[in-house]
Amino acid sequence: MLENQCTSMKDLQKIHAHLLKTGLANDTVAASRILAFSASPAGDINYACMVFRHIKEPNPFIWNTIIRGFSESQNPKTAISLFTEMLVASEIEPQRLTYPSVFKAYAQDGLAKIGAHHGRVIKSGLERDKFIRNTIIHMYGNFGFLSEARELFDENLECDNVAWNSMAMGLSKCGEVSEFKRLFDKMPSRNSVSWNSMISGFVRNGKYAEALDLFGKMQMERIRPSEFTMVSLLNASAQPGAIGQGEWILEYIKKNGIQTNGIVVTAIINMYCKCGRASKRLFAFFTLP
């Protein structure tokens, strides 16, 4: 039923009620399935927490599931608290799949300076695990701890795109534009995230011409831009004298059917307002087919 008939929390609650009535809710496998759905993006993390608290002896899968759910929620600090609880109050040891969620929660909550149990990973012999290493690099790079990130990232090793992108984004956020560009040029392979990050990095550091030039190269390599690319380019156009460039970008958005979500719309409004062309131009854009 959970696999074939459960597509929403309403469905889940009906099944869960049936399990409670029959006593099957005490079965670890059934409870873990209920927990997994409620901790997923389609579920309700608070409901997941309630389910978790009623499981008497959580196994590693159950701990990993609830920690991961909170690390991806609006309250990542709870993931850190649950991880600490697992270490202190249970006999379950962290596993390979536990740490990425923990480091992600630290990065979300802005607590990279704590070290985030990095030493525990080293003692466990998991530091070279690619999945774990990538999340630690992202955590350190996201908050400007570049020396710590560089200790883990070695461009001469066989790092994947996630590690390269995380390191590059960290350099960009710290204003290390030349180093960021050098790393981008040296990437063994570049995906859309790499290009978007580079364009965003140029815009963030006031390198608007470089951002537009890179967008041209991105088109030449037939990499389809996302709405995030467009937001960066619109932000680059939100300056006096750049309205022509901004309207070219708007035409590109319409012509290529790029999704205009709330973030894109906000960037469009911001661009027109800063260029002093807010009223008629905005009306024309949002009313044209």
TrEMBL record:
Repeat among keywords: yes
What keywords are annotated for this sequence in UniProt?
Answer: Repeat
Q: Where are the PPR repeats?
A: 59-94, 160-190, 191-225
- Pfam families reported in the protein's UniProt record: PPR, PPR_2
The entry lists its GO molecular-function terms as: RNA binding
Q: Which GO terms describe its biological process?
A: RNA modification
The domain of life is Eukaryota
What PANTHER family has UniProt attached to this entry?
Answer: PENTATRICOPEPTIDE REPEAT-CONTAINING PROTEIN (PTHR47926)
- Family under the similarity heading: Belongs to the PPR family. PCMP-H subfamily.
UniProt-recorded name of the protein: Pentacotripeptide-repeat region of PRORP domain-containing protein
Q: Which organism is it from?
A: Malus baccata (Siberian crab apple)
